[in-house]
Amino acid sequence: MRRMVRENLDSDTADELARRQTEADRQHAGGQLDVNGAWTSARKSAAFRPALAALKHMAGDTERCMYCLDSHGTDVEHFWPKSPYPQRMFDWANLLLGCAECGRLKGDRFPLDGGAPMLIDPSAEDPWEHLDFDSDTGNLMARVDAASGEPSRKGAATVDMLKLDAREALSKLYKRTFLRLRSEVDSALNAARGTDSPNAVALLDRLHALDDHGLLAWCFSERGAREQTLGRLRRESPGIWSQGESRFASTAAHR
Ligand SMILES: [Zn+2]
Fold first, then answer.
1. How far apart are CA 155 and CA 190, in angstroms?
2. Same-domain pairing of 82 and 143
3. Residues 164 and 100 in one domain
4. How far is the centre of ligand 1, averaged over its atoms, from the C-alpha of 1 (Å)?
């Protein structure tokens, strides 16, 4: 997962979504709302196209699913599911781009804790505050809080809901991306041996281009630094490490 920046809609599209929401609220209050019908009609309308384009743009060049960053994001996903929460079905902040598999796994499940979602919303928070990565298996898992020793409940719920530790193909691809990143760092460190340190900006740009799965935020953190090659980068090229940290691992949004 990776933190996404939510883009603003143009005012016509925002107005159109608001109009549809008002109409849905009115029908819902009267017990006559056909959630799927209302959604399908909006989704097919020309007025919705800019919203879809904005979601695709947020997801990046390859338009991957915002949850797994792996399969193609083919569906407009309602973070708060639309059937139990029709009052959010046209709320722009509630719309993400998702893949069929994540949509199937999530379904209408949406556990809350004191009214707050237990699923990570990549458009609203840094997923790595709740998640950790196992570079041996490629699995995602709940982040364990260093102070309390407790795994993040939100991370655990997200991993469980989207099976982020049990999708073999997914883990394989996360691991492949990690190995590519690591080998890029390795070559840069070896090339720099005895000479100047590797060109920071060029290396970070290459890493960014290789990071299909949002792993750099994990790599340039305390957790990533425990891995041998990344630990070596931090020791031998502290300047690059701190640039990487501020570029990738800050909780500030980045793509
Ligand atoms: Zn997905």
1. 36
2. no
3. no
4. 10
